Amino acid sequence: MVGEPVNLNEFQELAREALPKMYYDFYAGGAEDQYTLEENMEAFRRIMIQPRILVDVSRIDLSTNVLGYNISAPILIAPTALHKLAHPEGEVVTARAAAACKTIMALSFTSSCTLEEVASSCNAVRFFQIYVYKRRDLSALLVQRAERNGYKALVLTADSPRVGRKEADIKNKMILPKLKNTERFLSLEASSDNGSDLEAFTKETKDASFWWKDNGSNLAAFAKETKDASFCWKDIEWLSTITNMPILIKGLLTREDAIKAVKVGVAGIVVSNHGGRQLDYAPATITVLEEAGLSLYCLAKERLSLLSTQLVCWWFKLLEGEFLFSLMEECGEEQMSSRH
Questions:
Q1: Do the beta carbons of residue 186 and residue 112 sit within 8 Å?
Q2: Which of 75, 92, 121, 216 is deepest in the core (most CB within 10 A)?
Q3: What is the pLDDT of residues 190-223, one digit of tens each?
Q4: Are the CB atoms for 69 and 125 separated by under 8 Å?
Q5: Cα torsion angle, 269, 113, 244, 159, sign
Q6: Tens-place pLDDT, residues 232-272
Q7: Model's pTM, two decimal places?
Q8: Separation in Å, CA 324 to CA 74, 77, 252, 314, 328
Q9: What CA–CA distance (Å, rounded) separates 195 from 267?
Q10: How many whole angstroms separate alpha carbon 216 and alpha carbon 12?
Q11: 107 pairs with which residues across the strands?
Q12: Is 274 a catalytic residue?
């Protein structure tokens, strides 16, 4: 590329030139036919801006707050895996960039750096993303480590009971490096006949029962092969008992699931199709944002009538399309006592 990149498309092209093909495909690729991946971007292109004129814009303030933490704009760094494939310092420099921009970083469970290394790298607000595992003791240990190191919220990914079939990773025979957050407890030696060890590793670690029973699907067959086949919405209570951090559920796309999220008492939802990397032919996130997010808001206003409940921000991951709706509860002592 000639000259410095000036927009996201040019940064992506620069990444294509700089990274080994295996790593670029890992970052940029989607599941199966990549229809949802492409639709995520096409759906944004179909949205037109309807401007209003003669408005005083001499002072513009994009700042907002998420779960009570002030940020400079409604843009956060969503959890993404293995930053050291692109930069030698990995998530440490990502965290420093988030701090410099006065925003929040959500650290992925599959990070190249430990959650302790990221926590000690800078003074910034951080969330920690987790999955549900067959080994609940591992999940509990990760939650405790995050809380002990000052992470402010848990982002529970709920849309990947099994890993999406990314054909580029299979063709490239993508091999994951050791995951720093679990290298003392889990091995990446799981074997796979498909070329990539990503699916094999996921089978060894994730709890495939985090789903609604669908009788006879591949997902159900896979769940039968794992130990804990009981984790479901009601078990969010278990997660809440092992932490004082607020919990966000990531991966919702429907009004029905947004309503369930409110009923189980989570602090917010992340409307997401996992960047098109999990279930291909799922809708583009932006096309279901109103259905999932606003239905949650309306239900919350009805259920939490004693509280001033408000939508405080969208969390969107550029090029992948993820949105966070967070419920803020603002009330005085009298309201809190009335609530209990």
A1: no
A2: 92
A3: 444 555 554 554 555 554 443 333 333 233 333 3
A4: yes
A5: positive
A6: 787 788 899 999 999 999 998 998 898 888 888 888 888 89
A7: 0.78
A8: 9, 11, 10, 5, 12
A9: 39
A10: 40
A11: 128
A12: yes
